[in-house]
Amino acid sequence: MIDLPEARALTAEENLAVREQLMAIMLADPPLSESRTTRRRTRPLVAGALLVCLLVGVGLAAAVAITFTAAGQSDSAAVVVGSDMPDVLYGGRRITQDDLVALTKVGLGTFTVADVDTQRDLHATRAFDTLQELDAYSAAYVAWQKAKADGERVEAWGTLHP
How far is the C-alpha of 135 from the C-alpha of 141, rounded, in Å? Predict the structure, then answer.
């Protein structure tokens, strides 16, 4: 057991000086914990959503243009499709632009989307029959982009959704 000396009695002036010194030290030190809000990283998600909206808008405009072009033509040989146009992925198969025109004449494949990854990796756009299919595809694409932006290891988009 350790014997400590008795605490000596302080005078009123000494007591006041020690108190002021301790208060100065406490005010000078930063608090042990601070409450601060953590900023959420929404920038990649917002950018991905805007990209998908833009691509869907362009795809819808292209679908409307193809539909009007196909409806206005009585002969399918009159529709001219450039050779530099990408193929179309429809129902898990790769089809040509001519096949898409034939599908739109019967009311199928009317919704198209051209995402950057499919165009770059597969040189193709995608066609869907309903807006629900297009929405489901867009949601999956945005989730894939978010995972990629968060640094997760993801496969190429074309191998996930051929």
Answer: 10
**Tens of pLDDT, residue by residue, the chain (162 residues):** 677 677 778 788 988 888 898 888 878 876 666 656 666 666 777 777 777 777 777 777 666 667 666 555 544 444 444 456 788 888 888 888 888 889 889 988 888 888 888 888 788 888 888 889 888 888 888 888 898 899 888 888 776 665
Are 113 and 126 in contact, with CB atoms under 8 Å apart? yes
Its pTM surpasses 0.85: no
And the tokens for 15? 């007591």
Buried b (16+ CB within 10 A) or exposed e, 33-55: eeeeeeeeeeeebeebeeebeeb
Helix axes 97-105 and 43-72, enclosed angle (nearest 10): 70
